[in-house]
Design goal:
CATH class: Alpha Beta
Structural class: alpha/beta
Order of helices and strands: EHHEHHEHHEHE
Number of domains: 1
CATH architecture: 3-Layer(aba) Sandwich
CATH topology: Rossmann fold
Shape: globular
Distance between the termini: 23 Å
CATH superfamily: 5'-nuclease
Helix content: 55-70%
Strand order of the largest sheet: 3-2-1-4-5
Number of strands: 5
Largest sheet: 5 strands, parallel
Strand content: 5-15%
C-alpha cells in the first residue's frame, strides 16, 4: 500500500526525533512517496539545524528510499485550490495534493493536516506513536 510522507515526518526522521523509528518502518513497509516541495522544506530545516553538508547527505538518503514527485500541473492546481480554501501553508497543500494524487494515506504529525482527515484524504497522525 502506498504512503505519502509530509515534511513533518521527513524532518522527524532526519533529526532522529521520537517518531523517527515509526517513519523508518513506514518507509520499509510501504511504497513511500513525498512531494519535492515538502522534501525541500525538510532540507532547509535541516540546513538551519545541522548545516548544508549534513542536510544534503541525509536528504539524499531519503531520496533513495522514497519516490519523490515533482508536482505536475494537476497536483499544483489542486495544491493552489487547497491553499485558497484553507489555512494550510502552500507547502502543506502540496503534500495533501500529492496524497490525493497517489490515492494514499498521508503520514504526518502536523495538527493542521491531521485535522483534514476525512472522506477525500486519509491522514495518519504520527504523534500517536510518542
Amino acid at each position: 500500500m502506498p504512503a505519502v510522507l509530509d515534511a513533518w515526518a521527513i524532518v522527524a526522521l532526519l533529526k532522529a526525533e521520537p517518531v523517527a523509528a515509526r517513519v523508518r518502518t513506514i518507509i520499509e513497509e510501504h511504497e513511500s512517496h513525498a512531494c519535492s516541495v515538502n522534501l525541500g522544506e525538510a532540507y532547509y530545516s535541516l540546513i538551519r539545524s545541522h548545516g548544508r553538508r549534513v542536510a544534503l547527505e541525509r536528504v539524499e538518503r531519503v531520496r533513495e528510499l522514497v519516490t519523490v514527485h515533482d508536482p505536475a500541473w494537476a497536483v499544483t492546481r489542486d495544491a493552489a485550490e487547497i491553499k485558497a480554501h484553507g489555512r494550510l501553508s502552500y507547502a502543506d497543500a502540496f503534500c495533501v495534493a500529492t496524497a490525493r494524487w497517489c490515492k494514499a494515506p498521508l503520514y504526518t504529525g502536523d495538527p493542521e493536516i491531521v485535522a483534514l482527515d476525512g472522506d477525500d484524504l486519509a491522514v495518519v497522525d504520527l504523534r500517536d506513536a510518542r
